[in-house]
Design a protein that fits this description.
With 152 residues, the protein is mostly beta strands. It has a domain of 85 residues: Cupredoxins -  blue copper proteins (Immunoglobulin-like). It is built from one helix and nine strands. The strands form two sheets. A five-stranded mixed sheet has the order 3-9-8-5-6, with no helix packed on it. A four-stranded mixed sheet has the order 2-1-4-7, with no helix packed on it. Strand 8 and strand 9 form a beta hairpin. The radius of gyration is 25 Å and the shape is rod-shaped. The termini are far apart.
Length: 152
């Protein structure tokens, strides 16, 4: 290749690289996770409850804990609502009371929880994925409802 053609190409590449280095966006720092130990009062209603004092999540402003009580009787959900709603970054707590032994499976998050008639099983996680995720009694294959996680 001719030196007269190569020199402008090299100079152009160096100039392009310098301009890119000056205008490229800087990456955001990695978020840190903080767990909250607040618990709302016991109830059998499957509705989200807010604690008296609200707390802020360090990575998502105004993230609220969502506590849902799910009651299963005779192999079916007997509590309302069937669709649980939360926002991305929220702490979600599912408390399941069942009259039979089985395993709750939350699809999409691939979380499993053994349930038994002797106690209330508790599943806690941070809703970091958005979308609609069904939950079911895994062994019996009975779909109980869905969790919808909306973006902030």
């Amino acid at each position: 290749m001719n030196a007269k053609l190569l020199l402008p190409l090299v100079v152009g590449a160096v100039v392009f690289g310098a301009v890119y280095a000056l205008v490229k966006p800087t990456p955001a720092p990695a978020p840190s996770a903080v767990a909250s130990a607040e618990r709302p009062p016991e109830s059998l209603a499957a509705v989200p409850r807010q604690p008296a004092a609200t707390t802020s999540h360090p990575t998502v402003p105004d993230a609220q804990p969502n506590v849902f009580d799910i009651v299963v009787q005779n192999g079916r959900r007997s509590s309302e609502p069937a669709v649980l709603r939360a926002h991305q970054g929220d702490k979600v707590t599912l408390r399941i009371t069942s009259d039979t032994a089985d395993e709750l499976h939350l699809h999409g998050y691939d979380l499993h929880l053994r349930v038994s008639p002797e106690s209330t099983a508790v599943l806690e996680f941070t809703a970091n994925r958005t979308g609609r995720f069904t939950y079911e009694l895994h062994k019996s294959g009975v779909e109980l409802g869905a969790l919808e996680v909306y973006p902030r």
